[in-house]
Every structure is written in structure tokens, then in C-alpha cells.
Specification:
Immunoglobulin-like, mainly beta, about 45% strand, 24 strands, five-stranded mixed sheet, single chain
Length: about 325
């Protein structure tokens, strides 16, 4: 059994029958003309020569019809052998979506069929055409779509043509490195830098003296710089500081930009709100976390619900 792979760049078991190679040139039809009569008009008898000719013609016609039936009975038939997809994938992570089809018929045939997709919130949508090319009898062709990304956290269901067996791809929150930019589907850019951990920070008191501010619960400060840029082409709201929780173990700390005393060794705090197209904004967000926590224990999350689906990212 032959098996080959095809790869297609891109930014589930039933049977489908296709006609095999056949020709209509061998088929006969039409009416018999009166001039071709084989009877003698004078005595109504049929000659031996004419009888032999009729039998020969009848045998040839029967042979041609039999050959034609055998030819047209051959066809390429296709079955979906398997889906080759990840069961779980992070949003915006490029993956391969593959499927294997076998020609179980008697002749080679071309096979092209739509690839459909749906989510719990949407109906079946034709996303592309799956072209397996020419598939020989008994051959299995694996077709892979490369660089496929899913932008929302949801359950994607895939279907190939009229085959009944479907595949499920569950998407989950993206996990990206500190300092890596994430771009939402509509063009909003967000970046969270690596936390700076401090047991205290400096501030200037009322007398002008420099003093140290420590967390109330005896923990430590985590300062994170957050950057946003509105590349959506229209005015849009920036996330607020409290929309970036810091997570460690089974706990989380909410960020704030309002401290009793402002640090003197840092730039401005992060300010959310409406941003005009092309405008950038960045600043610090402060968290109070346990003193025995290290940067490796931390991640900062951001999520948003949209009409199209859920966006969710973790910087770590």
C-alpha cells in the first residue's frame, strides 16, 4: 500500500465516489433506416447472407455494450482514513492540520473537497479546498495545511467534505515569554515585561527626605511594565491595570497604579483608557506578593471576551 504526504501553506468515515475514466465514443444509437431492410420485397424470405450479417452485428453490439458496462462500472472511491490534528493548541500558535484519504476504488482519480470548520457559536463554514491531487487505487494520501493559527479560546470542529467523522481542536490560553508582544485579531498590541521584585521601594516624604516603602503584609513588591499600542485603525479602549492579574501557584494578586507613596526611581504608572489610532502607552503596575516568590513562579494574565470569541494570554 502506497502512502504519500502533501503539504499546503495556509497564513472526519464515509465514502465519496468519483467517475472513472470512460468514453462515450463506443456507444451506438439512433433509428434503423428503412433502406437497410434485410427482407426480400418479392418473396418475403431472408437470405442466408443477410441472416449471417444480422447475427454478426448483434454479437458485436452485445460485445460493445458489455465492454461499455464494464468500463463505466470502474470508479475511484475515497474514504477518510484518519485526522492528524493536535487535540489541544494555544491560540496564535502555528500548527499543522492533516487528514489522510485512501482510494479504495479500481482506478486512479482526482480528489478535491471542501474543508469545513465550526465552533459552538457558529455554523459550518467552508474555510478552504482540500486538494489531494491524483490518487492511485489503494494509495493513501496525507494532506497537511501548514501554519494554521486559531485566534480564540474555544472548541473548533473540522469536517472534510461529506465525510461524517469530524476532528476536534481545543484551543487554550497562549503562553508567551516576558517582553513578547501579543496582537489581538483586530490589531491591538500588548506587551508585559519581566517583573522587577523589590522588598521595598524609595519615595520622597513630606519633608523631602527619601524613605522606604514596604508591603503591609511583609511580602515584596513586583513592578511590571506594561505597553499597549492601538493599531486597530480606530479609537479603542486600552486595558486597565486591574485587568492584568499576577498569578503564582493557586493565588493571584491584582495590579494597581495607586500607591500611598509614589516611587521616585520609576517612570510614570500605566494609564488605561481610550486610545486614538497609532497612540502608544506604557507604564508600571505594582503587585504585592509573598517574599518567598521568585520570577519563575510568576505569570501575568490578560483576557477579553469579544463577539467573535475569548482572547486569553499569559506572559511568563
Amino acid at each position: 500500500m502506497k502512502r504519500r504526504r502533501e503539504f499546503v501553506s495556509m497564513v472526519g468515515v464515509g465514502t465519496v465516489a468519483l467517475s472513472g475514466c470512460s468514453s462515450d465514443e463506443g456507444e451506438t444509437g439512433g433509428e434503423v433506416e428503412d433502406e437497410g431492410s434485410t427482407s426480400d420485397s418479392s418473396n418475403g424470405e431472408t437470405t442466408s447472407e443477410e441472416s449471417t450479417s444480422e447475427e454478426s452485428t448483434s454479437e458485436e453490439s452485445t460485445s460493445e455494450e458489455s465492454t461499455s458496462e464494464e468500463s463505466t462500472s470502474e470508479e475511484a472511491e475515497f474514504e477518510l482514513v484518519e485526522w492528524i490534528v493536535p487535540s489541544e493548541v494555544e491560540i496564535d500558535q502555528p500548527v499543522e492540520i492533516g487528514m489522510a484519504v485512501e482510494n479504495t476504488g479500481d482506478v486512479a482519480g482526482e480528489f478535491t473537497t471542501p474543508l469545513y470548520e465550526r465552533t459552538p457559536e457558529s455554523d459550518w463554514t467552508n474555510v478552504t479546498e482540500a486538494d489531494f491531487g491524483t490518487v492511485d487505487p489503494g494509495e493513501i494520501v496525507e494532506l497537511f495545511f501548514e501554519e494554521v493559527t486559531y485566534p480564540y479560546v474555544t472548541r473548533y470542529e473540522l469536517r472534510l467534505g461529506d465525510f461524517q467523522e469530524t476532528a476536534i481542536v481545543q484551543t487554550v490560553s497562549a503562553k508567551i515569554n516576558w517582553g513578547t508582544e501579543y496582537t489581538t485579531p483586530n490589531g491591538y498590541v500588548i506587551r508585559v515585561d519581566e517583573p522587577d521584585l523589590q522588598s521595598s521601594y524609595e519615595y520622597e516624604d513630606y519633608s523631602g527626605e527619601v524613605s522606604l516603602e514596604e508591603p503591609e503584609n511583609g511580602g515584596q513588591w513586583a513592578f511590571v511594565n506594561i505597553y499597549v499600542s492601538n493599531e486597530t485603525g480606530q479609537a479603542n479602549y486600552s486595558p486597565l491595570a486591574n485587568e492584568f492579574p499576577m498569578i503564582y501557584g493557586n493565588s493571584q494578586a491584582d495590579g494597581t497604579t495607586v500607591l500611598f507613596n509614589d516611587p521616585i526611581n520609576r517612570d510614570q504608572s500605566f494609564d488605561g483608557g481610550e486610545l486614538q489610532p497609532g497612540v502608544e502607552r506604557s507604564g508600571w503596575v505594582a503587585y504585592e506578593i509573598p517574599s518567598d516568590t521568585s520570577v519563575n513562579d510568576l505569570r501575568v494574565a490578560w483576557s477579553q471576551s469579544t463577539l467573535e470569541g475569548e482572547l486569553s494570554v499569559n506572559w511568563e
